[in-house]
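User: Hey, my collaborator sent me this sequence without any context and asked if I could get a structure. I don't really work with proteins. Can you help?
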Amino acid sequence: MKTLWINAGEISGDLQGGALLSALREIAPEDSLRVVGMGGDNLARAGQENLLRVEELSVMGIVEVLAALPRAFRLLGRIRREMERLRPDAVLLIDAPEFNFRVANIAHKLGIPVYYFIPPKVWAWRTGRVKFLKKRIRRIFSILPFEVDFYREHGMDVTYVGNPLVDMVDYERIRDISPTPHRIGLMPGSRRKEVESLLPAFAGAAAKLVTRFPDLEFHCIRSSNFSEEYLRSLWGCDIPLVMHDNSDRYRLMRSFECIMAASGTATLETGLAGVPTLVAYKVSPLSYQIALHVLKVKWISLTNLIMNRTVFPEHIEKDADPEPMAARMEEWLSHPERLDDIRQDLEELRERCGKPGSAMRAAEALWKELA
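Assistant: No problem. I've predicted the 3D structure and written it out in C-alpha cell form, which is a compact way to encode the shape of the chain:
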C-alpha cells in the first residue's frame, strides 16, 4: 500500500485537493492507497485522514502576521514529526507557497519525493524561487497553459492538466443563456480592502453611466464573507442595486451584457463564462510602486495572461476611478459589436484552458508517478 501526504494550506486548496483525491480513488486499486496530511472538509470527504486541519493555518490572516508566526512554526513542527513517523511514499503540495515551501523543505530533507499541484506564480514575481522548486520538487502539475514553457525553460518536469475552473463553470450548461439588455454585473471581490476601494468606484461609474443609459440595471454578486448591508453601505448612491449570493453564479454571469470585476480568479471565471469584463485593481500608492518594480508580467488578469494579449481591459489605480471605467463601459454599450468581438476571443480562451476533467488528468498523472 502506498501512503500519500496531501498538504493544502488554504480553503481553496482543500476544494481542489478534494476533487483530485476523489478522482484518484476512482483509478487506484482498492486498498492500494492511504492518504494523510493537512486539509479540510473536502479532502476528508474524499478519504484523507487529516492529521492537521487547514483552518489552523487559514485563520492566521485574521491576526497580525508577526503574532501568527509561532503558530505556523508549531504546525510545521507537527508536520515534520508526522512525516518522520509515517514516512509517506510521496507528498503533494497544493498552492499556498509561503507555507508549502517549508513543507517541501521538510519532505526533501527526509528524502520523500515532492509534487506540486497549482504551483506558485513564480513567473510573475520573485522568479528566483524557481531554484528552490527545481531542487525540491519532482514534478509540477500545472493548471495554467503558459506556465509550462516557463518551468521547462528552467529544467523542471511539468504536466499541464487543464484548469479546474473549466469544470466549475461548465460552459455547456450555460451556453444557451443570452445576455439581458442593459444588465451590468458587478464583482467587487472577496477581500475587504479591495471591496472598500472598488465598490464605491463602481457606484461612481454607475452614476455617470445612467445619465447616458437610464435603463441600465446593476447586479452585484456578493462574496459570502460580506453581508448585503455592508455592501450597500459602500454603494452609497441612490441608483438601485440588485444583490445576489454565489448560488448558480455562472448562469447569472451569462445574463450580464458585461461586468466590472476585481482582478483575481473571478476574471478567469467570467472569461470562461464568455462575458466581457472590465478588470479593476486598486492598492495603496506604495504597493503599486513596489509592484511596478517586481512584477515580471504585462497583465494582471489571468484571461489576458493565458491569451497573451489584452482581451479584458485592465483599469489599474487611477484608471480604476469612476470616470475612466464609465468611459470604457460607455464605449462598449454604444458599440455592441465590440462586446461581440470579446465574446469571440473568449471561445479561444476556453480552448486554451483545456477540456473538462482536470482533476482526473491530475490524478492520472500523479498515480503514474506513485506507481
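In plain terms: The longest helix spans residues 65-86. You can pass these C-alpha cells on to your collaborator as they are.
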